[in-house]
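Hi team,

As requested, here is the filled-out complex form for the zinc ion run. I kept the field names the same as last time so the parser does not choke. Let me know if anything looks off before we queue the next batch.

— J.
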Amino acid sequence: MSPWVRSASILARTIPSVASSIEIPTPDDWHVHLRDGPMLEAVVGYSARRFRHSMVMPNLVPPITDASAAVAYRNRILAAVPPSEHRELDPFTPWIVWYCSPAIDADELVTSHESGEAAAVKYYPAGATTNSDGGGTSLASFMTLFERMAEARIRLLVHAESTDPTIDIFDREEAFLTEELAPLCAAIPELGVTVEHVSTAAGVDFVAEHPQCAATVTPHHLARDRSDLLASGMKPDLYCKPVINSAADRERLVATVISGDPAFCLGTDSAPHPTTAKYGPTAKAGVFNAAYGLEVVADVFDRHDALAELANFVSRNGCAIYGVDPPEGTVELERASIDLERATHLTTSAGDEVVLFGDAEATRWRIRTPG
Ligand SMILES: [Zn+2]
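And here is what came back:
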């Protein structure tokens, strides 16, 4: 048994083979949307309570494309963290990503990265997801920028989803990887790339075949498949981009992360939208999982008898990928011996309601964080 698996509580005494709690190094979230204004204020506490680093996506309106906007956004995030969520060890640290756009000045990006301000650059195919209208029409159009990034060791984060309307929605990740990312990897093998929210077996294979690539995986792509999305009435709360794919794809993702593969780390892609934007003729893409995502992932690992690998996926692999020191503190996940009551919504100060993903799994786990 791994040393961080404890077995000292009532549940462990009644069921000796099942640890009642696990203690893991403070996890990181390598992909999150914190939004801005009242939504930021409503959601940032969930991330600050659970995670050390949060890789914060730049798809605001307007997007983050320069140093002053990035620094101002980071300061707004830190100002919105509730005092109760400040930690001594592993303090919450938002890392601000720049939005890949012709507006980026490469010299400014490199300087900002050297000073620790610019964490990475995120490429969105134009129109692929929320606030991506200013994205690129092709990776190939940014080759000069990517060459500078490779020299400066700035990582490229990719929303890997084709926007070709002739390609089936469930095949768009594979199409993008094959048609766009593979040529880029061949052209600039020194460029570090993260395939964000990988959602298919084809995506897992691609990362395995390209040593310069790593990938984030979300709680919802590990715990749900397209039958959950569509079989019993369309569930707009599970609608995200890339769309949740087949059961076989989900099983491949799970097998990969529970194997401890160091190229894969947690990126929640937590993306809050008000219910007014989710329920209607067209649903906005995004799943808000910052509240219970860690519990959902623990539940997936537990059901596959793989809790011993949880820390690699949520706490260690990402540190190695991004070259940061391991955390000093820990978070404890305690198995609930009774079903806990969990909130299903939050309400912002502007009166918007947001649905919390994973409340069912969260009734089986309780997170304890050091004060
Ligand atoms: Zn995202």
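Two things worth flagging: The chain has one domain: 5-368. The CA atoms of residues 106 and 280 lie 41 Å apart.

Thanks,
J.
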